[in-house]
Amino acid sequence: MVDKSKYALLLFALFLSVVAALEKKEDSITFKARVIVDNKLPSGQNFTIHCKSKDDDLDVHTILPNDIYTFHFYNNFWGTTLFFCRVTTSYGQGVYDLYKFKRDKKRCSVCVYRVTKDGVYAVSTEPGRYDFIFKWE
């Protein structure tokens, strides 16, 4: 016969573990993020972008001159949200993780990128600055 008090204590300990895990992960559960990709190519050129996560395929989009592409989402429970995107221009192409929870949770809730003839830049944590993140292949 199972001792009910030991069983109840075990269930209570499990409950406390789950509550503690939820408190640590609270921002990953409720944290909404947005990605914005800005077309800054010269001479009125388009580019295409195709973003995916493990669970979502956002399809291929053509971004017109001086236009933006944007999407938003909630981070997953485990704090492992990742969106990677292939950007294709007449200057080349590249694939980059445009959103990675562990990297971006404190860096940006709105992550802004610029597509240029040199490659892709990300808005810096310093106001008014953009950091170069990848050049075209």
Write the element-wise H/E pattern from the N-terminal end onward: HHEEEEEEHEEE
Let me know the largest β-sheet.
5 strands, mixed
Within the largest sheet, what's the order of strands?
A: 4-1-7-8-9
Radius of gyration: 21 Å
Name the structural class: alpha+beta
In the CATH classification, which architecture of the largest domain applies? Sandwich
Mean pLDDT: 85
**How many domain units?**
2
* Beta strand count: 9
In whole angstroms, how far apart are the ends? 67 Å
CATH topology-level fold name of the largest domain: Immunoglobulin-like
Number of helices: 3
The CATH H-level homologous superfamily of the largest domain:
Immunoglobulins
Quaternary:
single chain
Fraction of residues in helix: 10-25%
Strand content: over 45%
Protein name: S-protein homolog
Pfam family, one: Self-incomp_S1
Keywords: Secreted, Self-incompatibility, Signal
Organism: Trapa natans
What does this structure look like?
The chain is an alpha+beta fold. It has two domains: about 1-30; about 30-135, Immunoglobulins (Immunoglobulin-like), CATH 2.60.40.10. The chain has three helices and nine strands; from the N terminus they run ααββββββαβββ. The chain starts with a helix and ends with a strand.
